[in-house]
Structure formats: structure tokens, C-alpha cells
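Changelog note: in this version the structure field was regenerated for every chain. One regenerated record is shown below for reference.
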Amino acid sequence: MQVEDHFSGHAVQYGRSRPDYPDALFQRLAAMSPDTSRVWDCATGNGQAAHSLAKYFDAVFATDVSFEQIRQAQRVGRVHRHVAAAEASAIADRVIDLVVVAQALHWFDIHEFVEEVRRVLKNEGVLAAWCYSGMHICPDVDERIASFYRHTVGPYWPAERRHIESGYRTLDLPLVEEALPSFYIDKQWDLKQVADYVRSWSATRRYMREHGNDPVDVLTERLREVWGRDTDKRRVSWPLVVRAGRLA
């Protein structure tokens, strides 16, 4: 199976600009798991989830199709990294307590991935996948970013983006799902950090390749009108949509 690599070309910036996830999410997933021996962080990217999982599991197997993402990821004890597709992990049969997919499930061949999860999970093992989309700062800032999202780079989003916008409900996951509390990513960011995050979007990178210029520069000027000083910190929040449970 040919797997498209969307992120190797900007792995360093991706790693620097992406927000991490709340620790309460990993606590809950560890509590759901039959054991805390081994977890597979599939499509680990720059390793945000893997680093947090290492607090709760004896061994974290972190895989990604992107060689550059794996190469650039910070080295953390208990985390074992290798390049592999989601549908062919090279992990042994029936050794994994929990499989997590953070902001990446929409890229997979779902049928093949589910079969791989069935192969590697122990009895009563758990699969959890989550995503986030719109960021919330304040109405004036949100309106400008939403316009950029829809109109400036909107045509450059890959078709798979629709799955994130639906909260992964358009993906057929054969899960007996467990009800979870609400989780949020919350950061205190200045204007540059917000701009760098928007610049890491796959649609923004596609726009830049096609047009040869950076559309975030114009967005940044628009945000300055309502932001204040560039160095002023504002609360940035993303609601997480989490689907978690045992395979049916």
C-alpha cells in the first residue's frame, strides 16, 4: 500500500509549533487499559503523545510513516521509535494494551488499520483516537483565523480533512465506545506562536508550495489589528474529540 507522507518536508517546524495534549487524557486512557505494559502511539509525529504516555506505560512503541518526524523527535526514555505505516506496524501479535492515534486517523486506510490493531492488541485492549480543529481565542481573532481557514487555504485542505471537521464520526470504527469527560488543549501563546501554528497546517504548506509566498504574513497583519502587542499572551483553546473503547 502506498502511503502519502504529508509532514516530512516541515518536520522541524511541525514539532515546534504543535500544541501538546492534557495530561488528564492520558491518565484516563491508562486507567481504561487492561495493563500498562505497552502502548502503541501510531503516527506519533513529533512525539507529543508518546512523551506523555511514557509517564504511564512501561514501554511506548512510537511509529510514523515520516522518517523526518521520527528523526527529529526528542528522545525520551521508554519510547521506542521506528518508521512504519499505520497498517503495518511490525509490532508483535497480542502485546499492546492501548493503541492511540492523535490527530492522524483521517490519513489511514481504516479497514487495514483496524485489522492491524486487532492483531497487536491484547484481550480487552483499548483503541483511542482523537482530533481537534478550530482554535478559540476571542471573537475578533477567531473570525480572522476562520476566514483564513475557509477562504485563503480552504481549497488546499486534503479531502481527508472532512473527517476532522466531523469529529471522526464519518469514520467507521467498530468500537464499543466508553463515555469520556470533555478534554481541552489550553495554551498561553503570543502572536508569533499562533502564526507558527497556522503555518504548520498542511493546507498552508500546500498553498506556499503552489504560490511561492507565505499567506500567514497577511493573516498576521490582520491579527495585529485586534491582538495588541505581538508579545502579549492570550489563552488559546481547542476542544478535543476523543473516540475510545474496545473493538467490537
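Spot check on this record: Residues 6-11 have pLDDT under 50 and may be disordered. The domain at 8-247 is CATH 3.40.50.150 (Rossmann fold).
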